Amino acid sequence: MKNKITLKELAKLLNVSVSTVSKALHDSPEISPKTVERVKELAKLHKYRPNPVAVNLKSSKSGTIGVIIPNIANTFFANVLSGIEARAQKAGLQVITYISNESLAREQQITEMLTSGFVDGVLIAISEETQRKKEYEHLFNLVDYDIPVVLYDRVNLDLPVDKIGIDDEHSFEDATRLLQTRGIEKIGIATSIHHLGVGKLRITGYRNALKDEKDFYIANSSKPDTLREKTRKLLVEDKVEAILCSDFESTMLVYRMAYENKIKIPDDLKVIGFINGDVARYLTPSISYVEQFPGEIGEEAVELLVDRIENRVAGKPPINKTIRTKLIHMESTGF
């Protein structure tokens, strides 16, 4: 049965965000009692209620959880999935994996299927297109249907659910300050994910550590050719002494551009990347990298979800867990 009114429509009538409406309907302590009362009164007036099929199905458990991965080609998400599978197996849970391929439409299709109630909970890393277009109603629908949800990695969204990710901002702030203590002042950043929440946080961390705004050097684009040209400028024209790479693509591009322009790593250029350790070790020279502990993120995400499924944290506000990263020094930051 279709709702007489949607969360989005309620939010528009009240002139508040969808997030506020969802939180108010679930008695979140983040929302004032007055606003909760307004939301519930309007919801009652319009006979708003969650999908009855989903609600009925939640009375019994399926022993299955759904996992939405944005990009399986990314080794980080592959390792997160490995951690999810390991922890789910210990909990006696089956895992159904879906790949959104960074597509909003595909993510919407998947979440619509999951609201039918055949899974006990959902783990999701939000797609790139969803973040770019800022269309989140399908995610709020999962919450509205009382399906436990945990966001992992890409958690920069005001959704009233448990979240787990790394400290993206401090990871690059600490890396920048470390380079500065070694006497390096001209530090740049290369990124192909500047438009994503995690990318923005990494840029912010780098920027926080700079002593002056004129020291800000960035090569940013999601288009390979544009990123290539901007990276060449950083290395050849700006002659940065060190460069932080926020993702796999930018890390590999920096290495390629350094080789093409006869820039020696680490003699002429220090490099720190967000890259899988197994890859970092086999390059020449090996790349210093930020260890994100993806397997641990996957295991902890399942732990949070199981606690919600089993009502161990019933009534408690959403939990936001942060995995501390570690800078692993390899040959590319040799001093």
UniProtKB/TrEMBL annotation:
<keyword id="KW-0238">DNA-binding</keyword>
<dbReference type="Pfam" id="PF00356">
    <property type="entry name" value="LacI"/>
</dbReference>
<dbReference type="InterPro" id="IPR028082">
    <property type="entry name" value="Peripla_BP_I"/>
</dbReference>
<dbReference type="GO" id="GO:0000976">
    <property type="term" value="F:transcription cis-regulatory region binding"/>
</dbReference>
<dbReference type="InterPro" id="IPR046335">
    <property type="entry name" value="LacI/GalR-like_sensor"/>
</dbReference>
<dbReference type="InterPro" id="IPR001387">
    <property type="entry name" value="Cro/C1-type_HTH"/>
</dbReference>
<dbReference type="InterPro" id="IPR010982">
    <property type="entry name" value="Lambda_DNA-bd_dom_sf"/>
</dbReference>
<feature type="domain" description="HTH cro/C1-type">
    <location>
        <begin position="2"/>
        <end position="23"/>
    </location>
</feature>
<keyword id="KW-0804">Transcription</keyword>
<keyword id="KW-0805">Transcription regulation</keyword>
<protein>
    <submittedName>
        <fullName>LacI family transcriptional regulator</fullName>
    </submittedName>
</protein>
<feature type="domain" description="HTH lacI-type">
    <location>
        <begin position="5"/>
        <end position="59"/>
    </location>
</feature>
<dbReference type="GO" id="GO:0003700">
    <property type="term" value="F:DNA-binding transcription factor activity"/>
</dbReference>
<dbReference type="Pfam" id="PF13377">
    <property type="entry name" value="Peripla_BP_3"/>
</dbReference>
<dbReference type="InterPro" id="IPR000843">
    <property type="entry name" value="HTH_LacI"/>
</dbReference>
